[in-house]
Amino acid sequence: MAKVSRKLQTLIDDGLFDRLPPTFAAYSFDRIEDWKKLFPAERGYFERLFGMLARSDNQAVERLFAPLRAVEAKMGVDRRTWSTREFTLEHVDFLQRNRHLAEWRQVIADIFGRIDPLLDAEVARRGRPRLVVVVSPSELPMGPDRMWRRLQGKGKLVNLALDESDAPEDYLARMFSGAPRAARAAALFDRFGATRTQDPYDAWVVEAEDSLHRLAESISGWTGLSYGRLAELREILMEQVNAMVTREQIPGPRQLGERLQRMNPGALKRAAGGDPALRDFLQSVLLNGNGTLLINNTFVEWAAVQAIRRARPALVCVAFGIRNKVKPFSSLLIYSDQEETNPIPTQADMLGSYVDLEIFYEYVWRECEKYAEYRRNTAYLFVGEGMDALLAIGPADFPLLQADKPIRLEEVFATAAQWLSI
Amino acid sequence: MFSLSKRQFLRLSGLAIADRLLPWRLRAQEPEPRAEGDLKIILVTFGGGVRYAETFAPEGLRNIPRLRALRSEGRFFKTCINSGVLSHYNSTSSIVTGNWQRVDDFGFGRAASPTLFERYRKASGAGPTDAWAICTNKSFATMGAGRSRDFGEPFGANVVLPKQLLLEAVSGVIARAPAAGVADRANVLRRLENILNAGYEGIGWTIFEGGRRLDRQVKDTLTRSLVEYIHGPEAPSSGDELTFFVAREVMREFAPRLMLVNFWDMDVAHWGAYSLYLQAIAKTDRLCGMLWDEAQTNPAYKGRTLMLTLPELGRDGDADTANGFLNHRSGDPSCRNTWMLALGAGAAKGETDRPIAHVDICATAAELLGVKLGETAGRPIAELI
Fold first, then answer.
1. Quick check: B181 contacting A, CB < 8 Å?
2. Which of A406, A408, B51, B243 gives a 20 to 30 Å CA spacing to A100?
3. Same domain, A282 and A403
4. Which stretches within B232-273 are classed as H helix?
5. What residues 177-206 of chain A have any CB closer than 8 A to a CB of chain B?
């Protein structure tokens, strides 16, 4: 067991986990086992969760978990067959194939349905303004009226005052730093990061290429991930996975999953800068099997969603790109580099990217709205690079929602900075 | 859509095998002994999983123009529930066995109970060409028979995995000549030829015993047909197109009484590209329509075929924590609540509101084929009996 916080260790030593139902205890133990791989927000959550359970009246805790104990009994789970100190792939397998899985899921959901509002109330009391900016690439062949259609009813299209003399390549610089690129002004996440040097996970920049990273003055105080800049790591991982799948006769996905978890190329360490939490984050994002190694926007969406879920940053800047068309045959060979294996020239898929992003905008917004940290105090800006309008969603006091005339990009920056108190 | 050359591919390849190896009297034109009645059943799955939201929900109808149009010609079951394990193998295995299967998720084990194929063939004495499973999902090699000792492979379906056959060929080309790439059709052809020479058993086909004995003439025939296939003007670019192509040829040559067609391209959703997922759904819709067209025009099927089309599972809802359409393990309603469209013989036009379940499909098909299932989780669907 790695060192957890003193607070949590005291609860463990006092036998809290031994009093919890085995499946709940095992899962919880597994989550906190690698304490150094957890982000501060995750550590805080577990301390609050188990602190609350420890403080609560024993009978109330028993009542809370009684339905779970009943389902566990039906499933054949007890302390003799289930260690409460580890949660293995065999455990996952057992649960997935158990005929009472649906019931088990439901009682777990019910338990959290009762716990989370209490924990959320604690979070909400410490609420502060947050900002999420989602940038779409300029190549998308749509105007503001056809962008963000899944979200338009939730916010307001804010017209932007663009001058013909403004250089298109300065669009993002003016919005994110309040000045053209040549001015080399500090970007929003730089400024925010300067106030948060102890917690670089409170501001994230996740993007397909590196247009936002290029605006940065420094790399401290915020966390940045660029699909483009991770090319070396992605190639190494793809090569290793491909070799594993084709040469090693791995019998099944479960065994593959175990091998993937053990992969540790130097490039991963270099990409994460020796930070164990970020290294673990990157590894799980890239190797979760959901196309993050293969498709830039899938990486951006999944990394952003995971960052929100796990690190709960106050500032999230997301920039999507255009994905390439999938070449004939290449869909059969998941971990082959289609650029190498297929000489057909690579083509950008503008329309496909547009369709892909429509749902990803919603998923990023939805992910935030699941958590008390974001609800009622988060402003969202959906921006199309070069576009003369943006979609703003947020609390009624977010100033851009009151805009009654076109505003300049520098004003968007100023409003965002003011919202974040920087 | 498909050229004659591709028809010839199958005709001259997989089907030539039967021509050579089966006594002429066992071929489709001279049907082998069967149970009473001549109703044929085709089970078609939207394998990989598809949500209501992208199919029969109002906003999804644009993705399925053929099924949308066919809905009024058959019986539409609004709620068909998958209460089992939400993996591909277990889902489809539950459909063909009538019991919720909880075996290995990736096809490394067989169903715990007999399949409809086995029960039908054992009960009726039908021969090996009367039950087929043609599956894009390459982990479905064991879908034709369960592990029950009273049944098993001798009574199972012929399982054809067209995508796996192609995959082996494409992989081989890449491994051997990376510079040339997979677009080099000559390379693909050479690799396919090698597969044939090595014996394709276990690669693309899990076919009945007779299929293992390829003689030189059959191999030559296969090779010739592969040339046509690879160089054909509209060579399929996806596994599902190839699956349709094989299924149609099997219908034309063997006219099996029982057939499972598993489309699967829509599982590309795991890649996170919503547009590719929608394209795959639209393609499956088109292929389902073409399969139905075949059943309407092929004399062996016309007027005597019941085609049941359903998703093997849904996919996670947008509000779900597991990242929406990308996955299908959450167990939320979007994942479990699907639909079924019954077309053809015995399917009175109309819609059914009451929920049915995936396991009911096997029970229904068994009843229609005159097969006694014994104790199963599924119950025959009254509207189709």
1. yes
2. B51
3. yes
4. 239-254
5. none
**Whole-number pLDDT of residue A34:** 85
The reply to whether residue A353 touches residue B178, judged by beta carbons under 8 angstroms, is: no
A349–B275 CB contact, under 8 Å: yes
Question: How many domains in chain A?
Answer: 2
Nearest to B323 among A302, A326, A330 (CB): A302
pLDDT of residue A397: 94
Flag whether residue B167 sits within 8 Å of chain A, measured between CB atoms: yes
pLDDT range class, residue A185, cuts 50, 70, 90: very high
Pairing mode, strands A389-393 and A156-159: antiparallel
Assess if residue A74 is contained within a domain: yes
* CATH number for the domain harbouring residue A248: 3.40.720
SS3 state at A14: coil
- Is B331–A292 a contact, with Cβ atoms under 8 angstroms apart? no
8 Å CB contact of B275 and A96: no
Q: Is B183 on the interface with A (CB under 8 A)?
A: yes
User: Is A64 inside any structural domain?
Assistant: yes
The residue from A75, A91, A125 where one domain ends is A125
Contact A343 B273 (CB under 8 A): no
Reported as a single tens digit per residue, the pLDDT across B309-353 is 999 999 999 986 568 999 898 888 999 999 999 999 989 999 999
- Using DSSP, state whether A374 is helix, strand or coil: coil
Q: How many helices (H) and strands (E) does chain B have?
A: 12, 10
Mutate to test the interface with B, among A356, A364, A368, A369 (most CBs of B within 10 A): A356
Taking contacts as CB-CB distances below 8 angstroms, the residues of chain B near A297 are 272-273
Residues A42-72: tens digit of each pLDDT: 999 999 999 999 999 989 999 999 999 999 9
Q: A interface mutation test: which of B323, B330, B335 has the most A CBs within 10 A?
A: B323
Percent of chain A with pLDDT over 70: 91
Q: With CA atoms as reference, report the closest residue to B331 among A109, A359, A71, A66.
A: A109
Q: Taking the model in full, what pTM does it have?
A: 0.87
Q: What SS3 state is found at B36? A: coil
- The fold adopted by the segment(s) B4-384 is Alkaline Phosphatase, subunit A (3.40.720)
Same domain flag for A47 and A63: yes
| Per-residue pLDDT at A88 exceeds 60 | yes
Residue of chain A nearest B333, judged by CA positions: A102
A223 close contact with B: CB closer than 8 A: no
Half-sphere exposure of B188 (CA within 13 A, CB side): 23
Residues A271, A316, single domain; the answer is yes
Rounded-to-integer distance, Cα A403 and Cα B322, Å: 36
> When comparing pLDDT for B10 and A368, which is higher?
A368
Which residue, among B68, B329, B363, has the nearest Cα to A289 in the 3D structure? B329
Domain with A372 in it:
130-419
At B80, list the tokens: 């068909």
Whether residues A94 and A235 share a domain: the answer is: no
- Which one of B181, B239, B323 has the shortest CB-CB distance to A343? B181
Please report which helix (H) or strand (E) contains residue B43, including its range: strand B40-46
Of B175, B180, B183, the CB nearest to A344: B183
Give residue B296's pLDDT.
Answer: 96
State the residue for tokens 């609050």.
Answer: A48
Residue B186 in contact with partner chain A when CB distance is under 8 A: no
**A326 Cβ under 8 Å from any chain B Cβ:** yes
User: Is the Cβ pair B268, A342 closer than 8 Å?
Assistant: no
Residues A147 and A263 both lie in one domain: yes
At A297, the amino acid letter reads N
Would you say B143 and B362 are in contact if contact means Cβ atoms under 8 Å apart? Answer: no
Strands (E) in B204-267, as ranges, are 205-206, 258-263
- What integer pLDDT is reported at residue B313 of this predicted model? 96
Domain ranges of chain B: 4-384
Kindly state whether residue A1 falls inside one of the protein's structural domains: no
| Strands across the sheet containing A223-226 | A156-159, A389-393, A378-384, A130-136, A315-319, A203-207, A223-226
